Q: What sequence folds into this?
């Protein structure tokens, strides 16, 4: 039996020397900036809404307010996506730093977010976390919010009078940013030596 495909593997230290590229800081900043914009859009829509709160309007009759509401909703969706991308980007960065590019790409890159987190901590830090761990819970919420937007599903409506699915704006976006920040904080608690890879919360 040939053993030419076998080789020893050395886990890199937390403070490994090298140069790495990542969009973590940018995505984290975007999430905060877009949340700030969203808050403004929400106040403007609320102030200008021509009907009672919670009721719909005809976009053809109120094109300007409809456009503003569209900007509000787009900002809300973007906050949720960038919050999840910031955390995913961090996990990928951490994996590449500790394992090297080739090993990470071959064994970890295509894993789902929660399996990636659990296996990375197990392999890199000898830390086994359960499915009910706070890190897993926070990551799951971020991933679910992101997946609902980037992997959209169709829903059959039972009748013309059925209530459409409503997204709480800006609450869901606030929760996404809060979960993102809580994840980074909790990861630092779990792996203090990795704190230098986690950008500080943007000052906005």
A:
């Amino acid at each position: 039996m040939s053993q030419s495909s076998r080789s020893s593997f050395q886990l890199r230290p937390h403070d490994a020397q090298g140069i790495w590229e990542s969009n973590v800081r940018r995505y984290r900043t975007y999430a905060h900036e877009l949340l700030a914009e969203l808050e403004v859009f929400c106040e403007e829509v609320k102030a200008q809404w021509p009907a009672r709160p919670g009721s719909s309007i005809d976009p053809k009759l109120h094109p300007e307010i409809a456009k503003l509401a569209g900007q509000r909703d787009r900002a809300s969706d973007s906050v949720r996506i960038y919050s999840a991308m910031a955390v995913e980007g961090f996990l990928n960065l951490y994996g590449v730093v500790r394992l090297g590019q080739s090993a990470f790409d071959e064994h970890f890159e295509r894993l789902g977010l929660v399996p990636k987190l659990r296996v990375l901590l197990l392999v890199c830090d000898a830390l086994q976390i359960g499915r009910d761990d706070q890190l897993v819970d926070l990551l799951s919420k971020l991933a679910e919010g992101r997946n609902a937007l980037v992997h959209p599903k169709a829903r059959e409506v039972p009748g013309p009078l059925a209530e459409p699915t409503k997204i709480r704006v800006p609450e869901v976006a606030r929760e996404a940013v809060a979960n993102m920040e809580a994840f980074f904080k909790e990861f630092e608690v779990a792996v203090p030596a990795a704190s230098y890879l986690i950008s500080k919360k943007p000052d906005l």
The chain has one domain: 24-51+61-152+168-197. The chain has a mean pLDDT of 91. Residues 63-99 form the longest helix (37 residues).
